[in-house]
Amino acid sequence: MPEFNFKNLGQSIYSIRITLGISQKELAEGICSQSQISKIENGEISPYIHTLIKLSERLGVNSNYFINQISKEHYEFIVQTKDEIRKMIKEKDYKEVKRLINKLEKHPSFQNIEEKQFIYWHRGISDYYLNDDASNAIKILNNALKLKESIQATAQDIQIINSIGIIYGEMEDWENARNSFLNAADIFRKSLYPMDYKILVRINYNLSKVIFKLKENANALQVVNKGLNLAIENDSSYLFGELLYQKGLILNELGKINDSIRNLEQARTIFDLYGKDSYLKKVNEKISLFNESLNSSVFYKK
């Protein structure tokens, strides 16, 4: 069981209150007494949950932030470090990922189950790309899934299953990859609490690529459209270019070349906007190739 640190909570409330330029009296109004705010900020007492929620609403802070302040030592450090590691994953700097997780493995702030699981997760990913040992990487990731206290799967569990699916996909083990992504999507949908929609967008993107490789093009189109619709519903550009690119490839295989080129051109606009040069090169090559195919078919019809 974690040791609850109410001093962290008090310091955070004090810091946010001072930054916003409001007094203890103004913060307490309609919620609790000013003396209670003083004792909370000094770490002398812990607020009731309904008081904490009301204080978080007044300060414009998610109540989960304050709960993490209580249950996790150096919470800001944990968040910043995780963000840095995820950034390194995105940049494919796996040597730096491995260096950081080796450094954090015995760090006091990373001894909670969630943080330990995070370390295992990123050890599996970095080991796979650095050592090209898929079997060992999947073993590490499955061990990460066993590190849990909750009865139902967490968002991090789903992301680990997604990583397992990616590794199976890179091994061209399409059936195991598909099963992993379907499992991840099923857990996401059955969750009893809201999760970040971006997780499901990514799962749909990865699943559509695998189903496309299995040459089930109509099914792949349905899945990629789910990803696009989810992004649109959330007014988000997350993976939108990649999804449009994938849809363009699928439509070409379905013989809908004009629709394919249109989606690829939309993807190109997004890649250009966000400076995704590697994707720009790929999409330009496909547009040229598909235009040649379209022109050839028109020529032979004449």
How would you characterize the overall build of this protein?
This protein is mainly alpha-helical and 302 residues long. The chain has a domain at 6-71: lambda repressor-like DNA-binding domains (434 Repressor (Amino-terminal Domain)). The protein has helices spanning 6-20, 24-28, 34-41, 49-59, 63-71, 75-90, 94-104, 113-131, 134-146, 155-170, 174-190, 197-213, 217-233, 240-253, 257-273, 277-301. Helix 7 (94-104) packs antiparallel against helix 8, helix 8 packs antiparallel against helix 9 (134-146) and helix 12 (197-213) runs antiparallel to helix 13. Residues 298-302 have low confidence and may be disordered.
CATH topology of the domain at 6-71: 434 Repressor (Amino-terminal Domain)
* Strand and helix order: HHHHHHHHHHHHHHHH
Classified in CATH, the superfamily of the domain at 6-71 is lambda repressor-like DNA-binding domains
Beta-strand content bin = under 5%
Q: Count of helical segments?
A: 16
